[in-house]
Design brief:
This protein is α+β, with helices and mostly antiparallel strands. It has one domain: Jelly Rolls (Sandwich), CATH 2.60.120.620. Helices cover 29% and strands 22% of the residues. The protein has eight helices and eleven strands. The chain has helices spanning 13-22, 33-50, 62-66, 78-84, 87-97, 171-183, 238-247, 268-271, and strands at 24-27, 68-71, 101-112, 119-122, 135-141, 152-155, 188-189, 198-202, 207-209, 218-227, 264-267. The strands form two sheets. Strands 1, 2, 3, 5, 8, 10 and 11 form a seven-stranded antiparallel β-sheet that branches. Strands 4-9-6-7 form a four-stranded antiparallel β-sheet. The relative contact order is 0.22. The model has no long low-confidence stretch (mean pLDDT 96).
């Protein structure tokens, strides 16, 4: 089967404007069924093989009930590496951020098991020791995600709000951030994903997900991109220090994060 993950997915000026306004966008038909089946089988295999969660759902914390999580699958398999290094997703990320190139921060699979709980409201960049907000996460469902499976939901325009940025994902973040979003009238976009539909959200966009009430796992692969020229900042919290050590080993505060774990995945000059 011939698969070309480097095939461009052109964006319109309106789509880029919508992303900049809302802090997220959902795009239809980024992948076809054959591509998702091929790479999804390997991502699922790796998630099951590498997952270390052994507790039953009822004995886990809120965070651990949200999903099974395995990171940097690209280092474990040539097939996973093909997917993570695909220029189609990376090109979309560069276009949305309006930058000349993007690097990999890290990837992660997120499998919300049947009866899995909510993903509490949070902003990803709480965890990242990055000096700018030029980051974006591609959230790639490996199957359609109907409402009862717990699709990712976004608070439109919330990337500009500082309240809640100091909260790690938890019961506290769910209650405090959701209440603040509602109090200030931020629209929550909580809708199903069609097969092949992919969302992209900024590192400071607040988002959450409902529980998986279906009988099937909600299987998702994510890739986190950062501006090619982003610099490491001194960590603000212990989670950012842990991320520095794990995802940017060898990077130096104040310098571009150019390490073997953070390769350039898209460069406009190379494309041109």
């Amino acid at each position: 089967m011939a698969i070309d993950l480097d095939r461009p997915y052109p964006l319109t000026a309106q789509q880029i404007a919508d992303y900049r306004r809302d802090g997220f966008i959902k795009l239809k038909q980024v992948f076809n069924a054959e591509e998702l089946a091929h790479y999804g089988a390997e991502i699922t295999r790796l998630t099951i093989a590498l997952n270390t969660q052994t507790l039953p759902l009822e004995e886990r914390t809120t965070y651990d009930r949200a999903f099974l999580q395995v990171m940097n699958l690209w280092e474990e398999s040539d097939i996973a590496r093909e997917f993570v290094f695909g220029r189609r997703l990376a090109g979309i990320a560069a276009s949305l951020m309006q930058v000349d190139g993007v690097r990999l921060y890290h990837d992660q699979s997120l499998y919300k098991e049947p009866s899995g709980g909510i993903t509490p409201a949070h902003a990803d960049q709480y965890y990242w020791p990055l000096a700018t907000d030029r980051t974006v996460t591609a959230w790639v469902p490996l199957q359609a995600v109907p409402q009862d499976m717990g699709p990712l939901a976004f608070f439109a325009g919330s990337q500009h709000i500082e309240f809640g940025r100091d909260l790690e994902i938890s019961d506290e973040s769910e209650h405090a951030i959701t209440a603040n979003m509602q109090a200030h009238g931020f629209r929550e976009v909580d809708e199903p994903f069609d097969l092949g539909e992919v969302s992209f959200h900024s590192g400071w966009t607040f988002h959450r997900a409902g529980p998986n009430r279906s009988t099937q796992p909600r299987s998702v692969m994510t890739v986190i991109y950062m501006d090619r020229d982003v610099r490491l900042k001194a960590p603000d919290n212990h989670m950012q220090r842990a991320d520095w050590e794990r995802w940017c080993p060898g990077a130096v505060v104040g310098q571009i994060i150019d390490t073997p774990k953070n390769p350039v995945l898209f460069d406009v000059a190379v494309t041109a």
